[in-house]
Request: fold
Amino acid sequence: MTIPEILILDFFFLDFIVSLLYIIYNSNYYKLILTYIDNDFNIYREIKTKQNKWLIEIKNEGDGNMAYEFENFLVEMGFEKLHKSSRYSDLGVTYRIKSDEMDGYYWFYDTDLFSVNIHDFLVKKDLVVCHKMSSDSEVEATSSFVKAAHGECLTPYMSVNDSMVFVSFRENYTFRFILHGGFPYFSVGVEFKKKFINDYVTENFNISPNKLRKALQNSNNSPIARDIGKLVDEILEYRSTSPGSEMFYEIKVKEWLRLTLNYYFEEDKKIKLNQVDDDSLKNVASYISDHYASQISQDLLCEIALMGKTKLKESFKSKYNMTITEYIQRKRINVAEHMLLNTGLSISEVSRSVGYKSQSRFTQLYKKYTGTYPRQIKKCRKV
Reply:
């Protein structure tokens, strides 16, 4: 295997607030693009040396050994392989990184059926992270539990914070995140490989690939996060390297999938919405998005939906996996977070702008949904 060639072209940091990374890889080729985002949140991904941007290409004419090539890739990225570490189980491999962008650890345990990974970093600068699986990847789907983070997912848009589940699939689906500097990013993920899906799921449980996909999609930011979080704690605490320790990870991966499937089939038994009701609920959600800072009466929402109070409550929760009150609160907090990060408004001004007369109530809800306090955001991101 030849040593990867690294080409670093004209680099100039400019006045951008974010840098990192877009990775596409298969068995013979890696490509890394440093992505920039300016103060207006315009993302620049086209790399041109005449534009004072940075391009690194790592080309590898390898022998198809993905594990070996991926380890080479990590080393080229600045990760140092630790041959002995008490931080995580020695059954897997631990890498350490300390750079201008991040400081922390990456751990993974890989088998023919699945892999388990841990990202444990302090993010020093705002980062845009794009994750895309190649269509020829041996990984069918990934499911990650975020223990600690502060940022936004751009596709689809949602806040990224503590105790969330994210799922991505092989068919060239891309997740783009903004992770804010000064905060940790701590996640545990499982990659389900094709062999695992074919040998274990499809044959043993008679579940079609389409239903499995729907089940995994349904776990995105869902109530099962609490149960998966308990599973994640067990994975993080496990240190044994005994002969049977491989079985521990296999059992936990299967339990992760079992929780996902159970939740999907339980949800499938709930209220079935017809197209008229589904459209009506979308109208309610749109109205809330446009008037989140106002005091929204339930009677008005019932008129918009053409439903009674009980049906509206039950149907809305079935569709959005949260109550109407929580939906309004999350919308307000998402807007408030953007204002805290990108304006010079005080916390009390932001609180009033999104509809809260009481700053203490706003602070309480902000901590509940983001895992941190507004003052920490202002301290970290002063404009």
